[in-house]
Amino acid sequence: MQRLIRGRWLVASAGLCLIAGIGPAQAQDHTEYEPADIEYGRSVYLEQCAACHGEDGDGVAGADLRGGRLRRAALDRELVQLIRSGIPGTGMLAFDLDTAEMTGIVAYLRNMTYEIDAATLGDAARGRAIFEGAGDCLSCHRLQGRGLRTGPDLTRIGAVRPLSALRRSLLDPTGTMRPIDRPVELVTADGTRVSGRRLNEDTYTVQILDDDARLRSFDKADLRELRVIEQSPMPAYGGRLDAAELADLLAYLVSLKG
Ligand code: HEC
Ligand code: HEC
Which atom of ligand 1 is the closest one to the Cα of 62? Predict the structure, then answer.
């Protein structure tokens, strides 16, 4: 699994290096975690945390760890701090974890899934029909060579994202948008307007995949305007699909392993 993610970033970085002569994309934000870290984190969790928090993360009243969002730790560094110092005056102890354990536990907690049952995962074949039909996903996403490129290619999405992240993407696309993936609109020195999806940005340059799916690099100093759009173009599907349809769609997404 780790190989898949690396491969993906290698392709992106190699392309960018050719064009811009820069180092590999550093833009890993905190909605993306290595599957290997998540897996390791689960073993640390079961060993050190499950005694109180329960195997499913719902063992402590008022401290539900399921679903990735934590009351006291919105940011990963706050979570690290909380685990290091505990919560004084409560049963939450301080833990002295090494770097790998800490990276793993954070990745695992952020991706802790709800119980996987029939209500969570429906029927993949029905999910496919929604994907290609009512959901209209191909109007923005590419899948196995079909569809448009406004959004990321989903051909291997089931291999690189845990179920919890897929579910969050469907329910809250803007909240889960990876900062680097944001749509950008820019105006060049000669007044040409270009829009696309940001792939990489450093102090001096920005690289985008433009609407015609070409990889392009710009010197920021030469731009008249550079606007990063914070709102995902993807609609939130919570209100558009009912629970059973969402479950079917999730089953289909999970099955997409390339
Ligand atoms: C001895 C029992 C115990 C153990 C072991 C334990 N915790 Fe806790 N933890 C608690 C209690 C009790 C709370 C709730 C404190 C409160 O809110 O009053 C808590 C709260 C938390 C919170 C805050 C949740 C939120 O929504 O903000 C996090 C995060 C957390 N624990 C992570 C961990 C991790 C990670 C481990 C293992 C490395 C761990 N805990 C091990 C008892 C424990
Ligand atoms: C109007 C365009 C649009 C439509 C329609 C759309 N998406 Fe998206 N989607 C995006 C864009 C752009 C992103 C990347 C930015 C973001 O996360 O919002 C994205 C992100 C995602 C992601 C997260 C990808 C990742 O790398 O984690 C998933 C999963 C996803 N979409 C699934 C779907 C599914 C399933 C449908 C159909 C039910 C759908 N999308 C419909 C534009 C769209």
Answer: 17
Instruction: Assess if residue 75 is contained within a domain.
Output: yes
Per-residue model confidence (pLDDT) at position 158 = 87
Q: How far is the CA of 122 from the centre of ligand 2 (A)?
A: 19
At residue 160's C-alpha, the angle toward residues 142 and 14, to 5°, is 70
What CA–CA distance (Å, rounded) separates 150 from 142? 8
Give me the pLDDT at residue 1, please. Answer: 34
In the DSSP assignment, the letter for residue 75 is S
- Report how far ligand 2's centroid is from the alpha carbon of 214 (Å): 19
Question: Is 161 part of any domain?
Answer: no
Per-residue pLDDT tens over the stretch 99-156: 999 999 999 998 876 544 445 688 999 999 999 999 999 999 999 999 988 888 999 9
The pTM (predicted TM-score) of the whole model is 0.56
- Write out residues with Cβ below 6 Å of ligand 1: 48-49, 51-53, 60, 62-63, 70-73, 79, 82-83, 87, 90-93, 95, 105
Range of the domain at 100: 35-110
CATH number at residue 56: 1.10.760.10
For ligand 2, whether the C-beta of 249 sits within 6 Å is: yes
Cβ neighbours of residue 18 closer than 8 Å, sequence gap 6 or more: none
Contact 168, 68 (CB under 8 A): yes
Q: For the chain, which ranges sit under pLDDT 70?
A: 1-31, 67-68, 113-120
Number of domains in the chain: 1
